[in-house]
Design brief:
The protein is α/β, with parallel strands linked by helices and 681 residues long. The protein is built from 26 helices and 19 strands. A 5-stranded parallel β-sheet has the order 5-6-7-4-8. It has a 5-stranded mixed β-sheet with strand order 15-16-17-18-19. It has a 3-stranded antiparallel β-sheet with strand order 1-3-2. Helix 3 runs parallel beside helix 4, helix 4 runs parallel beside helix 6 and helix 21 crosses helix 24. It is globular.
Length: 681
């Protein structure tokens, strides 16, 4: 293994650290690639893993620039460094419409023809035809085969996932474009092809397009082609560890007694763990290089952005990405082309948020015959992704205001837990859950489990889920300062007398219209509108007023009018029903109900009122859940570390419209050791 430190004017092997470029010799892997009998390859890797760098290296290699490889493994090998014309194309270009994509493809291809001074020999009015003509002209002019290197091939599709029509139109253009590579008059002219991108879905969606490519994405022979292997890390950074450790000790990020091996282990814990189907593991090169530049542990790769297709899918299927199923994914699932129907684990795997945990061969039936197929299990690769996944997830599904509120209130929630302030916890969770604007109403306890877990992890709490014990399984546990654990039991009721409440609210809303002044009703509905509409919409509504018409009554009228038009009737009824119970006496309400010919129980614990019997039932459920916690041996899995427990039963009803949090009265102090805890995300 060779490691070099070279000037800025030399090979662009890796990113700049200080004033030098450091790189690892990957040329043995590259030699194995370019001397295989196969000549046409496809490789997918996550963003910022050195895919473009690999293509730059191949460009130098096929250009015959042997002097650039002096001292590297391939320079000492039997490789002859043949000189080929190189067609290097990056599809990371403006593709907001099919027309723009075609124009930009034609421009880039024309510039390549101009660089080789063969523009007069290349013909074609579409990118696909011009592409084929360019390859033939390059081959004929040089009397040799052509090396075709295409970077970010999937960008015109994945960057447009928010607009399905544009994405599909762009995919059609690429299908025709890449189909050129295997045409009888073109394929024999190509000596080597490497197409690289983040996903393989755009490739498989091209049907009969580039299906002649040899996919090495999950091939053990090329698992170390991008990123730092463990051996490469030691070769490249061993000399820097000592000074780095000293700096981290001075900054307080490492213990004063920490050793070099402790630092190495912590670096691996943060940034190691990527595996593409073999024994070889690699560290995230982007995060490693930024770590040594900044001398601080942080989520560098997570913070650098996410692929556009992943953002679009999380918006469309938010619940699926809360806790994806990581087990039992067949290789055929990884090859599926419809992103909208694809399981979440393959999407996250190709995007870099998951890595292969294990692979085994199973027998599956294909068209009546039994054939062997690989079965994959996945896991989160390292601490950076584990810690950064949920904050990154929230940045997609929550607006900026909600995200900032989540961060700002983390410490407040923690103090409410420690103080056993059930009312505060209940209020905060109600607000958090209502902020999940992308969710359709979940109809299962598991969905609420995932939402609560995600909220806690998004606030950077250490969360344990479904922890087993000798007498049952604990829903959630949160590790708090001072070796304190919060133990949570979740209960969910989907439709607890909800139909009856809706009917009662509708009747009481009629009472409001009959008995309350318009100004009073409008003021209440105006508040509802202000809480529901965004600032821009409110300003637009109020813009109808002239300066001389501006008054509180007129503003309330316009906002109430907009509320009646845009807000669901059940919410209007609920607001007016609450207003009736607040403003009118019980006797007056009952008199009006008699006039309407209906009877409603207005007692405080009535099952007819949303704030009465429903609250009592939920409270009872929470109390029973708390009893289950204290009776079962849920504390067992935490005996290794815990000094104190906060028992909490949390009941969520109807997507956060009712939340009850009840804390136990006693803490449990446990000293006995027990088996190691199992941490799940």
């Amino acid at each position: 293994m060779t490691m070099k430190e070279i000037s800025l004017n030399d090979l662009p092997f890796w990113k700049i650290i200080d004033q030098n470029i450091f790189y690892v010799d990957k040329t043995k892997d590259i030699h194995h690639l370019v001397t295989r009998p196969e000549k046409n390859f496809f490789l997918s890797r996550p963003r910022r893993f050195g895919k473009s760098l690999l293509l730059y290296t191949l460009e130098e290699l096929f250009s015959g620039n042997r002097k650039r490889f002096k001292g590297l493994w391939i320079d000492q090998s039997d490789y002859a460094f043949p000189r080929l014309p190189v067609l290097f194309l990056s599809l990371s270009l403006d593709s907001d419409s099919p027309k723009i994509l075609k124009e930009n493809l034609m421009t880039d291809l024309s510039e390549i023809a101009e660089d080789y001074n063969i523009q007069q020999k290349v013909k074609g009015t579409t990118p696909a035809i011009y592409f084929g003509s360019l390859i033939r002209a390059l081959s004929k002019d040089s009397n040799s085969e052509v090396a075709v290197l295409i970077d970010e091939y999937d960008a015109p599709v994945t960057s447009q996932m928010d607009d399905q029509e544009v994405a599909e139109a762009n995919a059609k253009i690429l299908r025709q474009f890449f189909a050129t590579l295997k045409k009888p008059k073109v394929l024999p002219r190509i000596g080597f092809t490497m197409i690289i991108g983040i996903t393989r879905y755009a490739l498989t969606s091209m049907d009969s397009g580039p299906n002649h490519l040899y996919d090495i994405s999950i091939n053990p022979d090329f698992a170390g082609l991008c990123g730092f292997t463990l051996e490469e890390f030691d070769s490249l950074f061993a000399d820097r560890l000592k000074s780095t450790l000293m700096s981290l000790k001075n900054s307080g990020e490492m213990d004063p007694l920490a050793s070099l091996e402790d630092l190495r282990a912590k670096i691996f814990h943060w940034y190691d763990g990527y595996n593409w189907g073999g024994e070889t593991r690699v560290l995230n090169p982007y995060s490693i290089l930024h770590f040594f530049k900044k001398i601080s542990f942080d989520d560098y790769w997570i913070q650098s952005g996410r692929p556009g297709h992943l953002t679009a899918l999380i918006k469309k299927r938010p619940l699926d990405f809360l806790q994806p199923d990581l087990d039992s994914i067949l290789s055929s699932e990884l090859r599926k082309s419809d992103l909208n129907k694809l399981a979440t684990a393959p999407v996250l795997f190709h995007s870099g948020y998951l890595t292969v945990d294990s692979v085994k061969i199973v027998k599956v039936k294909v068209k009546g015959a039994t054939e062997p197929e690989k079965l994959y299990s996945f896991r989160l690769p390292n601490h950076e992704v584990t810690r950064g996944y949920y904050p990154d997830y929230f940045s997609v599904i929550l607006d900026l205001k909600s995200r900032n509120e989540l961060k700002a209130k983390a410490e407040i929630l923690q103090q409410a837990f420690l103080a056993k302030d059930a009312e505060k916890v209940s209020s905060m969770f109600r607000d958090f859950i209502s902020a999940f604007t992308y969710y359709q109403r979940p109809e299962a306890e598991r969905n609420f489990h995932l939402i609560v877990q995600a909220i806690l992890m998004g606030m950077n709490f250490t969360v344990f889920s479904e922890v087993p014990s000798s007498k049952g399984r604990l829903d959630l546990s949160v590790e708090l300062p001072g070796q304190v654990y919060l133990i949570i039991e979740l209960k969910y009721r989907s439709k607890l007398d909800q139909d009856r409440i809706l009917k009662v609210n509708k009747i009481l809303a009629t009472v409001a219209r009959n008995c309350l002044p318009k100004a009073t009703r409008y003021k209440s509905l105006s508040k509802l509108a202000s809480a529901t509409f965004d600032t821009n919409k409110i300003e637009l509504i109020l813009s109808e007023l002239d300066d001389n018409e501006s008054s509180e009554d007129n503003e309330n009228f316009l906002l109430a009018k907009a509320a009646l038009k845009s807000i669901p009737a059940k919410d209007i009824d609920k607001t007016l029903a609450s207003l009736v119970l607040e403003k009118l006496s019980r006797d007056l309400i009952e008199k009006e109900l008699i006039n309407l010919g209906v009877k409603i129980d207005l007692s405080p614990d009535s099952q007819d009122l949303a704030g009465g019997r429903i609250d009592q039932i939920l409270t009872r459920i929470a109390q029973l859940a708390l009893r289950d916690i204290t009776q079962k041996d849920y504390h067992g899995p935490f005996r290794l570390k815990a000094k104190e427990f906060i028992d909490l039963a949390l009941v969520i009803y109807d997507h956060g419209s009712q939340v009850k949090a009840i804390f136990g009265q006693n803490t449990s102090k446990v000293k006995d050791p027990s088996p190691k805890r199992r941490k799940l995300v």
